[in-house]
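idk why but the lab printer keeps eating my pages so im just putting this in chat instead. protein + flavin mononucleotide:
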Amino acid sequence: MKTKITELFGIKYPIILSPMAFVARAPLVIAVCNAGGLGLFGPPGLTLEEMRAQIREIKSQVGGKLFGVNIMPVMPKVKELIQILIEEDVPVWTSGIRNPLTMFNIKKPKNVIFIPAVGNVRQAISVEKSGADAVIVQSLESGGHAGLIASSVLVPEVARAVKIPVVSAGGYADGHGLAAALALGAEGIAMGTRFAVTQESPIPEGLKKCYIEAKDTDAVLSAVWDGMPQRAMSKMKHYRGWWTHPWDAIPTLINSKKSFNASWKEILENARILMEMKVSPPQFATGMALFQKAIATGDTKHAFAPVGQVVGLIKDIPTCRELIERTAAEAEQVIKDLYTNKMGR
Ligand SMILES: Cc1cc2nc3c(=O)[nH]c(=O)nc-3n(C[C@H](O)[C@H](O)[C@H](O)COP(=O)(O)O)c2cc1C
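predcted complex ->
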């Protein structure tokens, strides 16, 4: 399958592993890159030393293939992470929620491919102006911090508004989705939730089973999780925010200081960025703790796991290679069948 995205990244299939905090760690990134896709690493939750070690691990295992790292400007120590990306020669940079290049007035290094995620047309035009080589559009269906516009509208609108290749993220699990994204004007797809339910994914087996049993309506978009619109699954009945879980908020603040090796000044600066976005810092910190808890233990009775609406479509636990190869083969078949009127599953 050849598209502008396969050409830009030198990959076999137009399929990207979305960056996911606590999930898209080195083993998943390596598996996706070695199966012909592009793996994007999600560093939140790791110390700077751990991030560097995982980046080196990926590099040593992918035999020169491209891989990327996510920059989240809402996390502390983001400037130090960018410094690591430069020192370790990370070939692809991606970003979520805000654009780190404009936010910190950073010039993209010449040898770096920058593919930030955005949620609307204005942001897509803005990242293109700031030097992005491609753009991921995160739609309403997405797991995690979702966009607010459905992909059937967002993808064609962005594809018309920018010249750089567009990748559609949110709601993809199979070849029908890939074919639909290509038809809407995307040059590839990024999958988060689907890759979280693979053999190489680090989430507990119990949580994978829980995803397989889930329905489309179980993935709830709400700001209660961490203060920003986030789509997640949880069995917590009366969770309204950090004040209903203050015992999680305080240890998280202390732990985030320790795990990022950040000074109080840096923590306060981070809080300032969150408040600028009208996000309550304790709400965000508690959200990160409850998210990390669900991913580490599989407990969704007292925590929440970010997942997309696509969770209702996921019914098995393939390897990344099986998933990527069957998605591409199915998309090719769907595209052929559209012409011969043989559609249907
Ligand atoms: C568990 C999980 C963690 C995520 N963490 C991040 C993150 O750290 N940074 C980010 O930019 N996006 C994050 N996302 C959003 C994904 O990058 C992606 O946009 C989304 O998963 C696509 O929707 P899908 O889950 O329907 O495939 C996360 C999503 C999930 C499901």
